[in-house]
Amino acid sequence: MKHLLLRAALALGAAALLACAALFGAGYYYSSEHGRGCASCHEMNAYASGFHGSAHRGLTCVDCHQASLGTKLRHIRVHLAHSWPEAIRLREVDVLEMTASCQRCHRHEYASWHAGPHSATYQRIFADPAHNSKRMLMDDCLRCHGMYFKGSIRDLVQPFSTNGPWHIVPAKQAEQPAMPCQTCHAIHAPGEPESRPPARISVAGAAVPATLAFFDRREQLHFSALSLPIPVLHDGAQPLRMSQDPRQTVCYQCHAPRQPEAGSEAALKGWGPQAGSGDDRTPMGVHEGLSCAACHDSHTENARASCKNCHPKMSNCGLDVETMDTTYASAASHHNIHWVRCADCHQHGIPKPKAHKN
Questions:
Q1: CA separation for the pair 214, 217 (Å, rounded)
Q2: I need a labelling partner for 304 at 20 to 30 A (CA). Which of 74, 138, 253, 326 fits?
Q3: Cα(273)–Cα(270) distance, integer angstroms
Q4: pLDDT confidence of residue 336
Q5: DSSP per-residue codes, 205-263
Q6: In terms of Cα–Cα distance, which of 318, 327, 322, 311 is closest to 345?
Q7: How far apart are alpha carbons 333 and 340 in whole angstroms?
Q8: Phi-psi region of 351 (alpha: psi -120 to 50; beta: other; left: phi over 0)
Q9: For residues 147 and 217, is the Cβ–Cβ distance under 8 A?
Q10: Strand duo 213-216 + 167-168: pairing
Q11: What whole-number percentage of the chain has pLDDT above 90?
């Protein structure tokens, strides 16, 4: 009996040593020489090569990717079994874990994103009684909210109707962000590391960040901002002057106009897509031609502080533009900053600028 116990103890000790060796080996596999350990597996070689040409090439794989024991052993098992997919994609759980890692280097950007509307959780977006009671949820909602979610809208929210109360089916999903950093950033995209903070956004547009790209749910790929089109939009029959700032192409992937509805004047007269239709917010009136990024902070989306860049505190008519109701969110706003026109306030003609005394 003692011999059996001794043998069992030795076997357990050997198993523990093997587990420690596997853990150490797996850790080295992930972290050695800026990803060369990862690239030693041929299915990862292309991804590791792409990473070394990216703006994040000074980091190691584990600076962004989680490397828990379970993850390491899962990857080793997949490699040894030759069961990797043709194209290796991150799971949503991996993406959400990476989002927390972004703040280690991008603290200001992360804090701004977290304070803005794009950090909204699945619970806030998909279990909203005011929205869900008026419109049926559909799979296309996941194109902009939850593009990394694996499954259909029925797998995410129940009941699938306009009668609630609604709940998020995967309970752990409820408080997770539906639009994580990787929604608009491709961390393996080719580019140079930033040596200093980018300059203040201008109407002409600053250099496009190397990582700026939209993740397409259907293709399971990031599309660079420089490869995306700027739409041609109209205000009635009149074509609008569109900013050519390529950064706003990412915005248009979700804040998009609709084709004129059948029977509408725009459709009957062939005017083309109208600004302000769908979820589009293309500037018209006094702000025609401005880029989204000319006013909106890239992560908080706040635009209030941008007024002072073009306007003095007091306008020509004596109003403080920063105290005016310029919001898009309220239908009652008389000065919606996207579509306000001089004639909205000055029905009897535009006043001449006041002479300022020296």
A1: 9
A2: 253
A3: 9
A4: 84
A5: --PPPTTBEEEETTTTEEEEGGGSPPPP-EETTEEPP----TTHHHHHTTS---PPPTT
A6: 318
A7: 10
A8: beta
A9: yes
A10: unpaired
A11: 45
Task: Give mean pLDDT, residues 70-89.
Answer: 79
How far is Cα 76 from Cα 79, in angstroms, rounded to an integer? 5
Contacts of 56 (CB under 8 A, 6+ apart): 64, 187, 188, 193
What is the DSSP pairing of strand 238-239 with strand 234-235? antiparallel
Task: Classify 9 as helix, strand or coil.
Answer: helix
Backbone φ and ψ for 118, nearest 5 degrees, come out as -80, -5
Contact 307, 322 (CB under 8 A): yes
Coil vs helix vs strand at 107: helix
Token pair of 97, please?
């874990």
Q: d(Cα 34, Cα 61) in Å, to the nearest integer?
A: 7
**Given this model, what pLDDT does residue 86 score?**
80
CB atoms near residue 74 (< 10 Å): 11
Helix (H, G, I), strand (E, B) or coil at 131: helix
For residue 31, what are its two tokens?
Answer: 């972290």
Q: At residue 112, does pLDDT exceed 90? A: yes
81: how many CB neighbours lie within 10 A of its CB?
8
Dihedral sign computed on CA atoms, order 266, 270, 272, 273: positive
Say if CB 281 and CB 291 are below 8 A apart. Answer: no
Cβ atoms of residues 248 and 230 within 8 Å? yes
In whole angstroms, what is the distance from residue 59 CA to residue 107 CA? 16
CA separation for the pair 237, 219 (Å, rounded): 35
pLDDT digits (tens, 9 = 90+) for 160-213: 999 989 999 998 999 999 999 999 999 999 988 876 655 554 444 457 888 999
The pairing of strands 234-235 and 213-216 is: unpaired
Q: Which one, of 110, 93, 101, 100, lies nearest residue 148 by Cα?
A: 93
**Six-digit token string for 20:** 């420690």
Q: What tokens does 275 get?
A: 């600004």
Return the closest-CA partner of residue 176 out of 215, 146, 138. 146
Omega into 312 within 30° of 0, i.e. cis? no
Distance CA 25, CA 357 (A): 76
